[in-house]
Amino acid sequence: MAAQITVLDLLDRYFEVRQLGSSVRTEVVAGATTFLAMSYIIAVNPAILADAGIPPAAAAFATCLVSGVATIAMGFIARLPLAVAPGMGLNAFFAYAVVQGHGLAWQEGLGIVFVSGLAFLVLTLLGVRNAILRTMPPQLLPAIASGIGMFLVMVGLRNAGLIRAHDATLVTRGDLTAPSALLAIATLLFTTTLLARGVRAGIAIGILGAALVGIPLGLTGAASHPGGGAFDALFALEIDAALSIGVLDIVFAMLFVDMFDSLGTVIGLVKKARLGGSGDQFAGLGRVMGVDAGATILGAMAGTSTMTTYVESAAGIQAGGRTGLASVVTGGLFLLAVPVVPFVGLIPPFAAAAPLIIVGAATVGLAREIEWDDMDTAVPALLVMAGMPLMFSIADGLAMGVVSYSALKILRGRAGQVSWLVHALAALFVARFVFLG
Question: Where are the domains of the chain?
Fold first, then answer.
């Protein structure tokens, strides 16, 4: 018993659990909640990477292994409740734009991911990424968090089948009579009720409940995971191709998108968790960026696309997670999922729809901190909030905000009120849109 108390005390002291107003039990629940909210990546990432030619079993193994190791590293090194996994959108960019679009082998594509990860790490060690974070206009921070909330809501509604794409109106109502949509709505109401009654594990209970009900109804979407070839992608990357002149623009594009996707996500999550202290708002986030970059390098060697900090970490934060202990739990569950990938992959997208909507609703509320009476702030903030979900890109939404904020300050003769780095970032964003499409 004494040894158990000693272990708990050590955990509490290292992660500053009680100091941050949390408890070991709360952090464990939060870590499990984050894992359940993002566990869909175990099934979805291999499905996307298969279109690039990577064996699904190998991609699933790499997803679990690298997500586990990187998220545990995030917990111990950065000591923040942030999870790391292959980025959605980034994996599609890898499969369809990099590999298929340029006629490359998937091994060459992984080489490009590796090189971009190295560049990412160098920029982190030089302090470039942290400098960008520190000079980000504070007026845009609530908008970034709110934009991520809107992004989560849109993903949740789509996963639930409540909305779908439409050629004329861009988006429209889904089939509300579909069993998966009805179950997603029931899960949303059930989970919200649990949270309203103070049940901290409400989100985790909701996800598990939806998955368990969906299995006998045949709504899981898969009976088994493709087997064989789990180690086929290990160290299969080919770096030589990534250094050729013909693909340097691809390396730059991947680096650029990953950098600002990560920046936007981290800013929003830290704002959501209210972990930033006055005068040192981004303390420790240099370590976050370092882990993020290292994870991409490790992911390329294991056989998966670019790794990034996950917006679904907000689910664990909503469940009370405030320390790196939550990340250690999340990472541990990813490692435990390695031998049981077929079962974890059975959690369907609609099972995670309700928590995404709930977390999004809570995060969008930060919009009340925006100075809506100041047009210099209001317009860029609105572009950030609308751009992230409508462009389906955290990076592009962030770009819209930074470019418009910089332009308005210049046009009003107030350029000096903003750091030169903000104007430089705006110029880079414009260049990226013009030259890289």
Answer: 2-435
